[in-house]
Design a protein that fits this description.
It is built from 7 helices and 10 strands. It is of the alpha/beta class. It folds into 2 domains: 57 residues, no CATH class; 191 residues, Rossmann fold, CATH 3.40.50. An 8-stranded mixed beta sheet has the order 3-2-1-4-5-10-8-9. Helix 3 packs parallel to helix 4. The longest helix is centred in the N-terminal third of the chain and has 24 residues.
Length: 258
């Protein structure tokens, strides 16, 4: 029941712009807004127009528990410490992870969607990694793909429908990484399924096995669950099997190219 309500809320808020929680908080804020308006009106002489902000009273100063925030910070720190010669990102959020990395180094971004903005420190190239126009091999010593591979082939972002698109995409990205280079990958993991056309949820054991066929060796692993970052104790097989029985967890994989 909880999972059904979560999905209904996600559809209403992200696809139709109807956020029930925000609406309830805004309704709750009306009496306080009216009271504050009358108090301020008695203190202020001048033109006063109305633009109510009703729900901000009940929000925190910012969220530091979202899986995007935690993964972006986690992987950006690793890239900062590694200081690779060339880092390429595929499909991660421009206003999240890419911005983190661009703050301290140049980053190349490959995405199937266009980006019209010119961003300092970001070199953008529009490409479909399921069907690359100009295949590259051994192109970079560091590559990231955060919260993106799960969308490949589902048509959500204008990509062609391809049930095996994630396989092609993973192999293409692995080819971009030089021997000895690092590949950072994050995807939803748990009981394997497709929630069309939002995303895939991967079985982590099967995903790591697929990565091995692409010449990628798992060297580090972390995951985000219930708003908390969990770092692997090094028992990859045990942890991956356990997480594969969950409903939804964000897995953050660090691979080395053989």
């Amino acid at each position: 029941m909880h999972e059904l309500l979560r999905k209904i809320y996600w559809i209403l808020s992200t696809q139709f712009g109807l956020d029930p929680r925000r609406m309830l908080r805004s309704l709750r804020g009306i009496p306080r807004y009216a009271s504050d308006l009358m108090k301020f009106r008695r203190q202020y002489v001048g033109t006063l127009s109305l633009r109510p902000c009703l729900y901000d009273w009940y929000e925190e100063g910012g969220s530091a528990s979202s899986e995007y925030f935690l993964q972006d910070l986690h992987v950006a720190r690793k890239i900062f410490d590694a200081n690779p010669s060339r880092h390429v990102d595929v499909g991660s959020r421009i206003d999240g992870f890419v911005a983190h990395v661009a703050a301290f180094r140049e980053i190349e971004v490959f995405d199937i969607r266009p980006i019209s903005s010119s961003i300092p420190g970001v070199v953008f190239k529009q490409e479909d990694l399921m069907n690359p126009i100009n295949p590259r091999t051994a192109y970079c010593d560091s590559l990231s793909c955060l919260h993106a591979l799960e969308h490949f082939g589902l048509g959500r972002y204008g990509d062609p429908l391809d049930a095996q698109g994630y396989v092609t995409g993973l192999r293409t990205m692995a080819q971009l990484v030089m021997s000895g280079g690092t590949f950072y990958l994050s995807v939803p993991i748990g009981e394997e399924r497709v929630e069309f056309n939002a995303h895939r949820v991967f079985d982590p054991v099967s995903l790591v096995a697929l990565a091995q066929t692409c010449g990628l060796l798992l060297v580090d692993f972390a995951w985000v669950e219930s708003g908390k970052m969990q770092q692997s104790a090094g028992q990859f097989s045990v942890e991956l099997e356990s997480l594969g029985r969950r409903g939804y967890v964000l897995g953050i994989f660090m691979f080395q190219k053989l």
